[in-house]
């Protein structure tokens, strides 16, 4: 029996050309899983705080030592709950310092393909910024330096990125293999969890 999935378009705000990804996510996934999917799709390393904002509600990781009545636990909220409220576009912010805002748009809700494990990476364009590069202004400055061999900061920018990631930064190149592996690992864990639950209920 197939399950219901949502096709999501994830676009990093204020980027030109647009940095975006497309993924299929089961509607029963919680927002913590969706966070993991976005991290994998964009190539982020999950170093920083994050939250979703949908309508007048925010979802993230709650902290009992720092209570916030306006923040709901992402792990306790399913994507379906947003869809049931007719939310078709919402915001995901990663790294409250650099403030990387992602516009998440629900493109379609439909039956998934039989035998396919979800979530699933579909496609995308353009490499996401490196971690800790200083938000949009810092990324623009980094991009100018790293793509122009004559730029006075070219050597430093190139060496910094290679030191952090082990390779040169190519703005047009997505590491789709990494995205598929990371999101595929989430799908395998989810499938294993569902199988274990089914065995217990027999």
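Q: What amino acid sequence fits the structure above?
A:
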């Amino acid at each position: 029996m197939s399950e219901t999935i949502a096709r999501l378009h994830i676009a990093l705000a204020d980027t030109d050309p647009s940095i975006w990804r497309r993924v299929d996510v089961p509607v029963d996934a919680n927002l913590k899983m969706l966070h993991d999917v976005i991290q994998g799709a964009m190539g982020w390393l999950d170093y920083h705080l994050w939250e979703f904002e949908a309508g007048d509600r925010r979802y993230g990781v709650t902290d009992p030592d720092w209570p916030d009545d306006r923040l709901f636990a992402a792990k306790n909220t399913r994507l379906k709950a947003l869809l049931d409220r007719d939310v078709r576009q919402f915001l995901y912010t990663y790294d409250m310092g650099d403030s990387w805002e992602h516009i998440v748009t629900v493109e379609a809700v439909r039956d998934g393909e039989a035998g396919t494990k979800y979530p699933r990476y579909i496609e995308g364009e353009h490499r996401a910024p490196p971690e800790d590069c200083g938000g949009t202004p810092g990324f623009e400055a980094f991009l100018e330096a790293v793509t122009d061999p004559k730029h006075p900061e070219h050597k430093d920018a190139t060496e910094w990125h290679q030191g952090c990631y082990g390779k040169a930064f190519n703005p047009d190149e997505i590491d789709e293999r990494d995205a598929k592996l990371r999101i595929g690992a989430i799908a395998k864990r989810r499938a294993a969890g569902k199988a274990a639950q089914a065995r217990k209920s027999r």
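Q: And what stands out in the fold?
A: The chain is about 35% helix and 25% strand.
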